[in-house]
Design brief:
about 725 residues, alpha+beta, eight-stranded antiparallel β-barrel, five-stranded antiparallel sheet, about 15% helix
Length: about 725
């Protein structure tokens, strides 16, 4: 027993050493500042923080004293402080003492200012120590397993019991690695989240899937069915991270808040692992009205952060100047103070922003547009970047909605843009994650290329189209764009184009280009207050991924109404997924994340499964004619109308009702539509329906009502998708 105790003590000591090393690595920061616990110095400002004790019991208040010393020979302006405390150390964010300690304002050259405030003495919560608790719990579990296993091993005839225990534990850890048959799932296996504009990425180390969305909403899952939200430093530190670009570039009198109670101007991030940088790279849109927007880069060692601001990648709306009262260059430094709170280490952070001078800088000078266009300091940027986008078709691209992808040669490209001038693409430097300043796009060619904006690949002339996303599957790059306005009755719908080259040209099945060369009333701007018809945003360009459908296995009343701003990816096992947000016909402006599996048909076009993903597998052997034979609910994903609530013009409100067709074992189709069908290879099928040839696959899925196993098909033909679901 003494040997066991010694081994256990040695094991625990080793684990605690590893724990302390892990915590030290997490606490490390990469700022170029002089820093130690409770002190930090940068650009002539020294800040320090002290507390009235190094140890606190749960619920005790903390007296927090800060010192700000300006060692420069010039004054510092706009010195502001934000605080971050572990949960459990509470403070009144509206107290007079805190306001005085937060808004320092002005520090004269050589002056030192000291501020003090005391936190409240409410109950302590150790949520902030979740990482420590998680590791300790893991240690305890391992120790318990070892102790139990050793005890069992020491008893005669119990070796089998120890092996069984280990096997049960391993089986519990590994069960999630296996796909659940569609018929085995229930509604309790699904949990959606309200993440707008979800961008999907998978962490290869953990196998966890993450979505990053607008307005600082993030979620993760292990199975693409049950999602849960999470937060990270970007959630709480957005003012520190994005404050400079907001105040110096994006802000306008009409759009003066980075984030408010009703929303934010922090939009549509895209996250990718850069193997050359060995960093997770987050590309975030900082949106300003009048196209005064920018896409910025943040990086992290772990996918859940913490993320650090790197630099801006590209700007739009490079004219005029930002709000003069907020346009001074600013710097940011932090000071951390570590104490023992309720017996555990707790870190409190003070973040200070300050400006050495107040000076109005034009957006053109603040941005890199003059550098890229090789313009002199006093040269004006070309008028095509400032004139009316409806008439020029090339100006005022909006730098939002980034999507970053590698091509087959390992080059890194960022696709971005929305409405107005269209969607463009620039090359990034794989070493920095920022714009590749050595890459030349050539001279400006209308509707094709711009030396600053990059290659035009879609949209233009204020035709609808946003949220570009590229997917490489087999031999093609597929471009997704969302048409319409995102509101429930806004006509939001996803379109698909493809190209053999990442830079385009992107076309649909009929050869229609994704690029517009003039205003098109079917895709152009529509005032939703005046136009409530179901025929808005009904362009014939692009294959519509899905429409508002009533069919077997879907709710009759809770109908998807505004599907869009999607992402997509190919998983390690070759499965292809479409991830998007949707609103419903009966729940107003609430939105949820949905996931559907996609397949590449025999003509190289993507087809989307009728039901949300439930772990289904595409069988390689296919189905017999007798298994396929039966009556199906059938619906084409038409382009010509979209959902509108309570339409006075179209009583269907833009919802399509499935028709019934019968597939007979002899290969004929009858009923609401007529034609023929035949299986080709594996699960692939070819159908001729009402004279249109479709190709796609059969796949068994769990439907979206009672989750019963249902044989479905998804097809592409005639520049449109079609769905079928076999009736019981």
């Amino acid at each position: 027993m003494q040997k066991l105790t010694k081994k256990l003590i040695a094991f625990l000591a080793c684990m605690m050493l590893m724990l302390s090393m892990a915590l030290a690595a997490i606490a490390a920061d990469d700022d170029n500042v002089v820093r130690k616990d409770g002190f930090s110095s940068m650009k002539g400002l020294e800040i320090s923080v002290s507390t009235d004790s190094d140890k606190y019991k749960s619920g005790e208040a903390v007296e927090y004293t800060m010192s700000f010393k300006n060692t420069n020979d010039y004054d510092l302006d706009k010195v502001n402080v934000t605080y971050k405390f572990p949960e459990g150390v509470n403070y009144n964010k509206n107290s007079t003492d805190l306001k005085a300690a937060r808004e320092i304002g002005h520090i004269k050259a050589g002056e030192t200012i000291t501020k003090t405030f005391t936190t409240e003495g409410d109950k302590h919560s150790s949520v902030n120590l979740g990482l420590i608790i998680g590791i300790v719990v893991a240690v305890v579990v391992v120790v318990v397993i070892l102790v139990v296993a050793l005890m069992l091993k020491g008893k005669k005839g119990k070796k089998t019991g120890a092996a069984m225990l280990a096997g049960v534990l391993l089986a519990g850890c590994m069960s999630s690695a296996f796909s659940t048959p569609a018929y085995a799932v229930t509604n309790s296996d699904f949990a959606s989240v309200g993440v707008h504009d979800p961008s999907i990425v998978k962490d290869p180390e953990t196998g966890t899937y993450y979505i990053f969305g607008s307005h600082l909403a993030f979620a993760k899952t292990d199975d693409l069915m049950k999602w849960k939200n999470f937060t990270m430093n970007v959630t709480s530190d957005y003012n520190t991270l994005f404050g400079d670009i907001w105040k110096n570039y994006c802000i306008t009198p009409e759009n003066s808040e980075l984030r408010s109670a009703t929303g934010s101007n922090i939009w549509a991030p895209d996250v990718i692992w850069n193997d050359e940088m060995k960093k997770w790279c987050m590309y975030m849109s900082i949106n300003g009205n009048e196209w005064h927007s920018a896409i910025v880069l943040l990086t992290a060692d772990k996918i859940e952060g913490p993320y650090a601001y790197v630099d801006e990648v590209i700007f739009s709306g490079c004219f005029g100047s930002a709000d003069a009262s907020a346009s001074a260059e600013s710097s940011t430094i932090k000071a951390d103070k570590t104490v023992e709170y309720d017996g555990a280490e707790a870190k409190m952070t003070m973040t200070v922003t300050f400006s050495p001078y107040s000076e109005v800088v034009s957006r053109a000078d603040y941005a890199d547009i003059k550098q890229v266009l090789k313009l002199g300091q006093n040269e004006a940027i070309p008028s095509r970047y400032t004139s009316d986008p409806v008439t020029t078709g090339t100006s005022n691209v909006n730098c939002i909605d980034p999507n970053v992808q590698y091509d087959d040669e390992g080059n890194l490209w960022m696709t971005y843009g929305s409405w107005s001038a269209g969607i463009f693409q620039i090359k990034l430097d794989t070493k920095t994650g920022l714009r590749d300043y050595s890459y030349e796009y050539g001279e400006y060619k209308k509707d094709k290329v711009d030396p600053y904006l990059g290659y035009k690949i879609a949209g233009g002339y204020y035709n609808s189209g946003e949220a570009p996303y590229l997917l490489k599957a087999d031999k093609y790059y597929y471009l997704f764009v969302s048409l319409g306005n995102l509101e429930t009755s806004g006509g939001y719908n996803m379109r698909i184009f493809r190209s053999e080259n990442i830079n385009g040209p992107y076309v649909d099945q009929k050869g229609n280009s994704a690029i517009y060369t003039g205003f098109d009333p079917s895709a152009g701007f529509i005032d939703l207050k005046k136009d409530t018809k179901t025929t808005k945003y009904n362009s014939v360009r692009g294959i519509r991924a899905m429409s508002s459908v009533r069919m077997y296995g879907k709710s009759e009343t809770h109908v998807e109404a505004a599907q869009g701003h999607n992402s997509a990816f190919v998983d390690d096992d070759g499965k292809i997924y479409l991830v998007y947000h949707t609103r419903y016909s009966d729940t107003g402006e609430q939105f949820w994340v949905k996931v559907h599996q996609m397949y590449v048909n025999e003509d190289g076009w993507l087809v989307v499964s009728p039901y949300e993903y439930s772990g289904e597998l595409l069988t390689e052997v296919g189905f017999t004619a007798d298994e396929i034979a039966g009556t199906y609910d059938f619906s084409i994903q038409y382009q010509n109308k979209v959902f509108v609530a309570n339409s006075a013009v179209d009583k269907t409100n833009g919802i399509y009702d499935a028709i019934q067709i019968t597939l007979s074992s002899d290969g004929t189709i009858s009923g609401g539509a007529t034609g023929t069908w035949k299986s080709t290879t594996g699960s692939n099928v070819e159908m001729v329906i009402d004279g249109v040839t479709y190709k796609g696959v059969f796949v068994k899925q769990a439907n979206e009502t009672d989750r019963a196993e249902t044989l479905t098909f998804t097809l592409c033909g005639g520049n449109q998708l079609a769905w079928g679901a076999k009736l019981p």
